[in-house]
Amino acid sequence: MSQTPRNVKKVATKKAQATKPAKRAAAKPASAPADAKTGYAAPDAPKPREFAKARIAIVATRWNVEIVDALVAGARACLLDWGVHDKRIHFHRAPGSYEVPLAAKLLLESGYDGVVALGAVIRGDTPHFDFVAGECARGLIDVQLATGKPVGFGVLTVNTVAQAVERAGPGVTNKGYEAAAAMLEMLRLRKELQ
User: Fold this and answer.
1) Which residue ranges does the record annotate as region Disordered (predicted)?
2) Is 128 one of the annotated active-site residues of the chain?
3) Known binding-site positions
């Protein structure tokens, strides 16, 4: 009569347990309910001094400057609201939206923790809009993937000036504000994973 040694049973049990799929932690629900109109749930509020030492660049285009400057004001307000020290927020201009990806890459490579990219591309009568808007967006994604650092996308791509003005208004619905908040959320994730 043969018996299986106890240690063999233990090893077999451990192997069986190791092949069971690990229980995944449930996704943390959004801290705030989603906005009824947009479906957007606001991110968790920053912890005190969470971003105090972050070095952030804002790069903004020279085209449609009144609209872009309103986006800059929104981005700056967000950064300050989230606790980024005023002296650690630096502002730079790019000639246009097509040049923003390179500006963002140069800024990130020079030591910034994140960049907020701002501009306003308004559709005209030619396909120029499609080329500029698409390449700017694609370029900024490439910059993030190449550097491993976050870029907040606040380059408006709209059909009319009125649409741009609406998206550059005061408050947390300002697309500059939203772009800065998105960049800080990704900066938070990057720090959590390091």
Assistant:
1) 1-44
2) yes
3) 63, 97-99, 120-122, 125-126, 153, 167
